[in-house]
Amino acid sequence: MIRPEHETTAPDFTLPDTHGRDIRLSDVLRRGPVVLALLRGLA
Length: 43
Prior knowledge:
The protein is α+β, with helices and mostly antiparallel strands. The protein is built from one helix and two strands, in the order E-E-H.
């Protein structure tokens, strides 16, 4: 598993929200800190 160094800044990226609209990480970060959890195998 690759682990980022402590306090590493994630690159900007775009993902769809729960309504299918694209949302950018940089837009969300303007409102404050972000916790991102990527889960696999939830079907």
